[in-house]
Amino acid sequence: MDHHFVGIPGLTDVPRVAVVIDVMRAFTVAAWAFSRGVERIVLASTESEALALKESRSGWLALKDGAPAAGFDAVNSPGLLRSCDFAGRTLVQKTTAGTVGALAVANAPLVLCASFVVAGPTARFLRNKDSGPVTFVVTGDGGKADEDLACAEYIGQRMAGDEVEAAPYLHRARTSRAAADLAGGLRSGYHPDDVDLCLEIDRFSFAMVARQEESLTVLRPVAVPDIPPPARGSG
Fold this sequence. Notes:
ten-stranded mixed sheet; single chain; alpha/beta; globular; 10 strands
């Protein structure tokens, strides 16, 4: 299947199906947020918009990249997020790359956001939809981030069949510049477990679909059950 891999600057047309990849860390964090009870994630274009959305709705929370800041309830770190209780809450997320990529393709008919922790369910969701070729938006480093490209290529291969060895793709991500920067403490709002948490393949059993709800771009989890192999001797 002839998938298309493009960085945010290379987006020229609205794709039919877009999968926006941010492994380290936006869409690993989003998946963890859903696992901690978040009902929906609203993607914001700026930090000021994120705070304005939070302040305009009772009970909403806001999350950003970098160090903790006034008005924000969480930072973009799976290690720091995993102990939170966000049951039933709406989270407004603004990050440097992931949310920017998702908003850039928000008008596409089908938009998913993904990372390694939801790679398998994302591939199954697309396969079940018979989606055809996908535009993978590689958000990091202007479209050159190897951790994002590796994840995109892995999902593309999984769309064709589940027998795909994950180790080479995870190795590329672990040896990427983003992983080195995280491990070296060069990014603020960091937990020592962040790299490992970003490289847990298929930790969660849902895909994450972004849709327009009123004037907002909203990300929600969609359960994707495992597909059991056919019984031997079945027709």
